[in-house]
Design goal:
Elements lengths: L21 H4 L2 H4 L4 E2 L5 H4 L7 H14 L16 H7 L3 E2 L2
Parallel strand pairs: 1-2
Length: 97
């Protein structure tokens, strides 16, 4: 995420052209339009959620396998390394079906 801002002097005659790429124009919220089902997600699926890396995704899957799946999204609180702050940030992007 970088932007280039050019400030012209008041005597300079310039034209303005706005340009963005599709990936930089989309916020993280817009990239996650599909909810990730905690009971069927792969590690790659989980890593599409901001704040979930390879280790956390593996921990989520290990918890799922050890406990017969998630009963609710709140079960994520039982996964090692997921605290209140992480739950708050990922809750809008996950579901349990």
């Amino acid at each position: 995420d970088e932007a280039v801002v050019y400030v012209a002097s008041k005597d300079e005659n310039i034209s303005v052209v706005a340009s963005t790429t599709a990936s930089s124009a989309m916020s993280q919220d817009e990239k996650n339009t599909t909810l990730v089902n905690l009971n069927t997600a792969t590690e790659a699926d989980l890593q599409t959620i901001s704040g979930i890396g390879a280790k956390r995704a593996a921990d989520i899957i290990a918890y799922r396998e050890a406990n017969g799946g998630f009963k609710s999204v709140d079960d994520l609180n039982n996964v090692s390394g997921i605290g209140d702050k992480t739950m708050e940030s990922i809750r809008p992007y996950v579901t349990v079906e």
